[in-house]
Write a structure and sequence with these properties.
By secondary structure, this protein is mainly beta. It has one domain: TolB, C-terminal domain (Neuraminidase). Helices cover 0% and strands 55% of the residues. The chain is built from no helices and 25 strands. It has a five-stranded mixed β-sheet with strand order 1-22-21-20-19, with no helix packed on it. Strand 17 and strand 18 form a beta hairpin. The mean pLDDT is 95.
Length: 283
């Protein structure tokens, strides 16, 4: 296993999630800062939109309209014409706050949720994955998920892989013609690691943010870990491959524990490291 070292690109965010490389910049949600940012390769930041109900997963429809997960009110929003417009209300389908999301080439969004109020220590419940069509229709496509997080879709559009944080694994599904998910299977058993955000490279490897282990690891189908980026005492939250050659791994880290999330302060930052295999563009 190869050990890599990251460098700080920019800091002083509240709690970053959902990094996406799009049109030459890294887009990311500051959940508890209630903003979506775009960050250049040099670390210059721009506020794209304020989302007072806590933004998380990001994606784009085929016409390049950005859609944003709105966690607290359990809605999927479109950022259109300088306004936030409801794309789909998922409050009747989600058992907890919405979380991460991936959008396929057809504009179908796969949205996870927490299943219960993790921040107020409600009893654990499993969650589901909701598929939202480009016109805003929504249905549940996977159930009994252990904290579905960080989904990616393979370049051929045929497979979705999602991190199950509570089950310490990456789970794969085949994507059906109508956008459903079937043939559930384990992509990688991560042992004592707790996966958060993930991203896919062109070799089929998946970079995983291990929140509990303070590291990012690259894992292949079957579970072999090939690379590791240590975060020192910081928590690994999410990651994305991008940059001019798609070989920069952007690592979102947090200085604190789960109990510190949502308590304010600017403890989140973006770190970078150059890796061997380029990003495949998902999430």
């Amino acid at each position: 296993m190869e050990i890599l070292t990251s460098e700080v690109l920019t800091d002083k965010f509240v709690f970053l999630e959902g990094p996406r490389w799009h049109n030459g910049r890294l887009y990311t949600s500051d959940i508890w800062g209630e903003k979506v940012y775009a960050v250049s390769e040099a670390g210059e930041r721009e506020v794209i939109v304020d989302v007072p109900t806590r933004p998380s997963g990001l994606g784009w429809l085929p016409d390049d309209t950005m859609i944003i997960v709105s966690m607290a009110d359990r809605k999927l929003m479109r950022w259109q014409g300088g306004e936030l417009v409801t794309h789909a209300d998922l409050s009747q389908l989600a058992g907890g706050d919405l979380n991460d999301m991936v959008v396929d080439d057809q504009g179908r969004a796969y949205v996870g949720n927490m299943g219960y109020d993790i921040f107020n220590r409600e009893p654990y419940r499993t969650a589901n994955i909701i598929m939202v069509s480009p016109d805003g229709d929504a249905r549940v496509v996977a159930e009994d998920m252990g904290g579905p997080n960080g989904p990616v879709i393979t370049s051929d559009g045929k497979t979705l892989v999602v991190a199950e944080t509570a089950n310490a694994c990456l789970t794969a599904f085949d994507i059906t013609a109508d956008g459903g998910l079937e043939n559930r299977r384990i992509f990688a058993d991560l042992g004592d690691r707790r996966p958060d955000g993930i991203c896919l490279d062109v070799e089929g490897g998946i970079w995983v943010a291990d929140f509990s282990g303070n590291q990012f690891v690259r894992v292949e189908d079957g579970g072999e870990i090939t690379h590791q980026v240590n975060c020192r005492s910081r928590r690994a939250v999410a990651c994305q491959l991008g940059g001019a050659d798609m070989r920069t791994l952007f690592c979102l880290t947090f200085d604190g524990t789960l109990r510190d999330v949502g308590k304010g302060g600017t403890r989140s930052q973006i770190e970078t490291v150059v890796v061997e295999s380029a990003g495949a563009g998902s999430p």
